Amino acid sequence: ALRLSYLRSGGHDPAILDQLLHLQLEATVLEKGTAGLRRGRRMAEAPSTGTHGLDAALLAVELENRRLEDELLALKVRRERRANAGSQAAQQHTEELAQLQAEVGMLRCHAEQTRPWLHPPVCPHPIAHPLPP
């Protein structure tokens, strides 16, 4: 629980994660020792180093898997947030574009209504006759 809260709050320092792993390994060894005392004297003896080493290695792999799963979940959440932000921005741009196009159409209508009807421009008559070649 401590490691999970550390990771969820953004912690990623390898030294602290290593300490948390070490603490969890110690807690597991103590729990197994306490459970063994309850089952009987023979179970309370220290586990063989081979079994203990395998248990510790298995626990370390499980912890690393959990850490990687947490990291993967955090990456998925970030990706979804970015995708949502991108789609929201695209939707906002589309709405702004539609609004601007509507405004341009209204301005064109207004301009056509307010200006007098202009005939297409005609070329003015030349003032002087062209010079002969």
Please summarize what this structure is.
This protein has 133 residues and is mainly alpha-helical. It has a domain at 1-46.
Helix content: over 70%
Principal-axis shape: rod-shaped
Which structural class is indicated by helix and strand composition?
Answer: mainly alpha
Please mark out the parts with pLDDT under 50 across 5 or more consecutive residues, or reply none: 37-48
- The overall pLDDT, averaged over residues, is 76
| H/E element order | HHHH
Q: What's the total number of strands?
A: 0
Tally of contiguous helical segments: 4
What profile does the largest beta sheet have? none
Radius of gyration, taken over Cα atoms and rounded to an integer in Å: 39 Å
Distance between the termini: 102 Å
How large is the share of residues in beta strands? under 5%
